[in-house]
Structures are given as C-alpha cells and as structure tokens.
UniProtKB/TrEMBL annotation:
It comes from the Bacteria. One of its GO terms (molecular function) is sarcosine oxidase activity. InterPro entries: SoxD (IPR006279), SoxD_sf (IPR038561). It holds the Pfam family SoxD. One of its GO terms (biological process) is tetrahydrofolate metabolic process. The lineage of its organism: Bacteria, Pseudomonadati, Pseudomonadota, Alphaproteobacteria, Hyphomicrobiales. This is Heterotetrameric sarcosine oxidase delta subunit.
Length: 95
C-alpha cells in the first residue's frame, strides 16, 4: 500500500484517498499546431516506465484537493521525495 503525506494539508493519506496523475513534469507544447503527428503522439502517450525511480503527480482527492509531486521507486514503492506542485525535485533526474 502506498501512503503519502500531503505537502499541503500535512495529512498522511493512503492510495485510496489519493488520485494518481501519472508521470510528473510532462511539458505541454507552447504551439501544439506546429507539432508533427509523431511529436503529438509522443506528448500524449509516451511515458517513462522504469523499474526504479519515477517522478509522479498525485492529488489529495479525499483531503485538500491539491496536486503535488513525489518520487517513488516503482518496485519497492519507497518514496524518496514529496514536494508541492510548483516546486522542483532536488535530485538530478528532474528536468
Ligand atoms: Zn492534502
């Protein structure tokens, strides 16, 4: 079971109380009309699926409703960092 402390309301929530928002830091194209079909497809569907650390976005759905970001190991579910949505991860993987 994944348990995360929300960085906004500071309440500890289980994964049933949270909503998973997928990989974090997916950058929306400034001018989507200029993208090729391949670039648009990559933006919409292509995500990292590592067996290791992944930066994700979650919503405190049963609590304050705020979105925040975490870094989680996809095998062990160890959470190495929890930050507010407007913050940057401290590790080198953040881009
Ligand atoms: Zn919260």
């Amino acid at each position: 079971m994944i348990v995360i402390r929300c960085p906004y309301c500071n309440e500890q929530r289980t994964e049933e109380e949270l909503s998973y928002g997928g990989e974090a830091n997916i950058v929306r194209a400034i001018e989507p009309d200029t993208l090729s079909d391949t670039e648009w497809t990559d933006y919409l569907f292509m995500r990292n699926n590592p067996k290791g650390l992944l930066q994700e976005q979650w919503c405190c759905a049963a609590g304050c409703g705020q979105w925040f970001k975490i870094e989680r190991h996809t095998v062990t579910h160890e959470i190495t960092e929890v930050i507010r949505f407007d913050q940057q991860f401290s590790c080198k993987k953040d881009s």
